[in-house]
Structure formats: C-alpha cells, structure tokens
Amino acid sequence: MTPNISPAAPPAAAAGTLSIGRDLTVRRLGFGAMRLTGAGVWGPPADRKTAVQVLRRALELGVNFIDTADSYGPHVSEEIIAEALHPYPSDLVIATKGGLTRPRAGQWERDGHPAHLRTVCEGSLRRLRVDRIDLYQLHAVDPAVPLQDSLGELARLQAEGKIRHIGVSNQSLAQLKESQQLVAVVSVQNRYNLADRDAEDVLKHCEQEGLAFIPWFPLGAGRDASQAKSAIAWLLARSPVMLPIPGTSSVQHLEENVAAAALRLSAAELAALA
User: What is the SS3 string spanning 79-144?
Assistant: First the structure.
C-alpha cells in the first residue's frame, strides 16, 4: 500500500506500511542487522562506532523494523542494537531468530532442540534488554528434531510472555503449512530477490494468508547504488506483503537503500524484470 506522504515524513515512509500479526504495524522497508558484525558474520565489526551510527541513522530515516539473530556474530548484532538504540522508541519492532549455531567462523549448524531454543531466546532477551521479543523466528528447520517440538517450545515461550509473535525462516511451502498447523505464524523469512525466486510459492501463500514475507539477501547480485535501489523497488512493487530488509555497514549505503522506498518503477521496467 502507498500512503499519502507529507513533505516532512521520513524517507522510509514512502514504502507504505505492513501489519505483522494484528497488533504491529511497520514501515515496509526494514533493516537487516547481519552485516553489523565482523567479516563472515563472525566477531565484532572493524568499526563499532560506525555500526552504531548506521542503526541510529536508520531510525532517523524512518525505519522501524530491524531484523537480527543470535547467530550473527554470534550475539554481536543483538548487543550492538541494544547499545545503539536502547531505550527503544515505542514504534520500533525488533525481530530476532534462533535455531542456527556458530561453532566457528564460516560454519552454520542447525539446532532446533527445545532446550536450545529456550536458551538462545532467553539470551536474546538479555542482550536486547527487553522483556518480550516482538517477533521471534525459527531460523531454520532442524531435520533431527520434529518441527512440532521446535515450534512447541516457541509456543511455550510465547505463553510465558517472552515472545509476542512467532515467525519462521528458510521453510518450504510444505513446512510452512505444517508450521501453521502448530502455531500462529505471522511471518516468513526466505531468500528471495530478482535473481532467485525459488520461494515464489511461499510468497504467494503468504499473500493468501496475510503473512509478512521478509526476503533475505534482497539485493541479490546488485552491487552499485542504482542496482540496489532498483532491486529494492522491485521487491516493494512485487507484493504488498513484502518487507525487504537490506543490510549494510555503511551510512551512505543505508541512505541509498532507504531512498529506494520512493522509487516507482514503470510498467515497462517491471515487465522487463518479470
């Protein structure tokens, strides 16, 4: 949806808004905080001061949805978010994820065991300095653990008031439908961009079900500013449930990405990208 934007509105407002569940409304251009860590999503950033500046500038530009995960760093991304932004504005929604572990640099492993999910969720609560996480996402399905066990633990954490809404990530359509039978899913975060549309069936299901679709790696192969803006603008035009979360460790690149909220591709341009 495209709202009427006043001249004083922040740049991100041009993207319109999206509901997550029935009680959260965010601007449809968020920020992915994975790249606020060191190289390879491991350890602290080379310039922590700039990472803090990027987050604060994102809010100045009107971004009010930030996505992270306990495995980014690990822990580093969540810690920097709290350092930069706590106490949080009332309209800021922070989403985090659990279910992937980092035994060492360059390695990602799945762990959907209930005990692990409880431990990392409670760790995220401490690092983010909140009593409840607005959106907690199962980062990936662990083939060694029944999905009902993993999501069942998230449901228990939700009943305890530690999670507001439950989302899922990296799921096939069949897995998503199974997840919906187990818990009230409000969002899906899958890889999706101009060059990689393997999650098209999941996106269509999200449209039908009214679920937010959060594409990770949203810029795909885009590298320069014009390519990045076009990639973001295409995603925003592609579906009203789309919530892109382009990430960066540069204030300049952040400003370029958020400027894409106001870019409207022509019918001919959209057709060429179809």
Answer: HHHHHHHCCCCCCCEEEEEECEECCCCCCCEECCCHHHHHHHHHHHHHHHCCCCEEEEEECCCCCC
Residue 4 lies in a domain: no
Residue of 1, 69, 59, 73 whose CA lies nearest to 30: 59
Dihedral of the alpha carbons of 7, 258, 76, 149, in degrees to the nearest 10: 100
Q: CA-to-CA distance for 191 and 81, rounded, in angstroms? A: 23
- The SS3 of residue 236 is helix
Domains of the chain: total = 1
Closest by CA position to 220, among listed 195, 254, 245: 195
Is 88 an active-site residue?
no
Q: What is the pTM of this model?
A: 0.95
Cα separation, 96 vs 220, in Å, equals 22
Is residue 2 a part of any domain in this protein? no
List 72, 88, 136, 192, catalytic entry: 72
Position 3 in a domain: no
Which one-letter DSSP state was computed for residue 19?
A: E
Q: What is the bridge-based pairing of β-strands 185-189 and 109-110?
A: unpaired
pLDDT digits (tens, 9 = 90+) for 249-273: 999 999 999 999 999 999 999 888 8
Tell me the C-alpha to C-alpha distance, in Å, between residue 98 and each of 20, 45, 150, 172, 178: 19, 21, 10, 18, 19
Whether 92 has a pLDDT exceeding 50, the answer reads yes
Local structure of 64: helix, strand or coil: coil
Domain range enclosing 213: 11-273
Partners of 95 in beta bridges:
67, 135
CATH number, position 165: 3.20.20.100
Query: Which position has the token pair 């079900």?
Result: 209
Residue 5 lies in a domain: no
